[in-house]
Design brief:
about 100 residues, alpha+beta, 5-stranded mixed beta sheet, globular, electron transfer activity, Adrenodoxin-like, 2Fe-2S, iron-sulfur, 2Fe-2S ferredoxin-type domain-containing protein
């Protein structure tokens, strides 16, 4: 089943990916989502893929683990919705997921 993911960039633009496969960071970089750089290549050692998960998706996506949270703690604008999208593997249950690209610190 195709998995549709919507990224909302800082300027309010929407990038909709219909057949998302891989991590959210891989999907974002493959589709040139502005604000998602993925400088570390997805190994959770930077925060250039910081997103905020829409509240209605928090239960399905889950919270950051300890290592991811440590990296997020270095960011200025984080909250309970903050995740590094390199740590979110796309699964069928995420069909319709909406994430907002966080401002770069």
């Amino acid at each position: 089943m195709p998995t549709k993911i919507t990224f909302i960039t800082q300027d309010g633009s929407k990038v909709v990916v219909e057949d998302a496969i891989g991590t959210l960071m891989e999907v974002a970089t493959e589709h040139d989502v502005e604000g998602i750089d993925g400088d570390c290549g997805g190994v959770c050692s930077c925060s250039t893929c910081h997103v905020k998960v829409k509240r209605e998706w928090l239960d399905k996506v889950g919270v950051a683990d300890e290592i991811e949270q440590d990296m997020l703690d270095l960011e200025d604008e984080t909250d309970e919705r903050s995740r590094l999208c390199c740590q979110i593997e796309v699964v069928e249950e995420f069909d319709g997921l909406i994430v907002e690209v966080a401002p770069l610190s």
